[in-house]
Structure formats: C-alpha cells, structure tokens
Amino acid sequence: MVAMHEMSLALSLLDTIEKSLEGKNVKKLREITIEVGSLAMVNTEQLSFCFSIIAKGEIFSDMKLNIQKKKAVFRCISCQKEVSSEELLSNCSFCGSSMEFMSGDELILKRIKAEVEDA
C-alpha cells in the first residue's frame, strides 16, 4: 500500500529536482541526498518506495536516494540550553522550564550528484 503523504512528498521532490536540472545537460543522476527531520512525520521507507515508482527514465537509472535523518532541536526558554531529540520535548531536563522548538520538521534536498554531458 502506497502512503498518500509520502507520495505527495516524492512528487514534490521530483519536481524540485527536475527544476534544478533545467539547462544543465545532465545525462544521469548518480545520487540524491535529502535530510528528513525526526518530527517531519515522514516514513522514510515509504518515501523511498514512492520515489522509486515515479522517478522513471534513463536519467534516474542506477540513481541512489540517500535519506539522512536529523534529530529535532529544542531550546529552553529560561536557561537557553539546546537539546537534540527524536521526540517532542515540552520541558527542559536541566531546569524544568518550557522548551521552544527550533528545527526538526524539515525535508531538505541537500545534494544532487549527476553526470553531465560534454557541451
């Protein structure tokens, strides 16, 4: 069963990749690296599967999709200590105050490695 959320993300990722390759004479994609925050609510296995379904054509053959997971970052509103976590944090483990969410819900296209045709 294909998850609709991950399919939508895969389609958006493919669109972003295609737009970034416009006018660059790319023959083959070798590796795509994305970073997924631990609070992005993304099943990375399903995202990889969905991307493999839609990324068709010679340019995508033998391409590796590299998915890096990134922990969320929170900062205490009182003591300003920053903490990384794979889960949502509400209270500071140092002073007990509330935590402010800083990052960790992103899906970022980090790198595109490609083979370019000679001009």
Describe what you observe in this structure.
The protein is an alpha+beta fold and 119 residues long. It has a domain at 4-71 and 105-116: 2-Layer Sandwich (hypothetical protein PF0899 fold). The chain is built from two helices and six strands, in the order αβαβββββ. The strands form two sheets. It has a three-stranded mixed β-sheet with strand order 2-1-6, with helices on one face. A three-stranded antiparallel β-sheet has the order 4-3-5, with no helix packed on it. Helix 2 links the parallel strand 1 and strand 2. Helix 1 packs across helix 2. The longest helix is centred in the first third of the chain and has 18 residues, at 4-21. It is elongated and about 60 Å long.
SSE series = HEHEEEEE
Poorly predicted tracts of residues: none
Strand content: 35-45%
Approximate helicity band: 10-25%
Q: What is the CATH architecture assignment of the domain at 4-71 and 105-116?
A: 2-Layer Sandwich
Backbone CA Rg: 18 Å
Assembly annotation: single chain
Mean pLDDT: 93
Side by side, the strands of the main sheet go: 2-1-6
Structural class: alpha+beta
What is the compact description of this entry?
The protein is an alpha+beta fold and 119 residues long. The protein has a domain at 4-71 and 105-116: hypothetical protein PF0899 fold (2-Layer Sandwich), CATH 3.30.2320. The protein has helices at residues 4-21, 44-54, and strands at 26-37, 64-70, 72-76, 82-85, 99-103, 107-116.
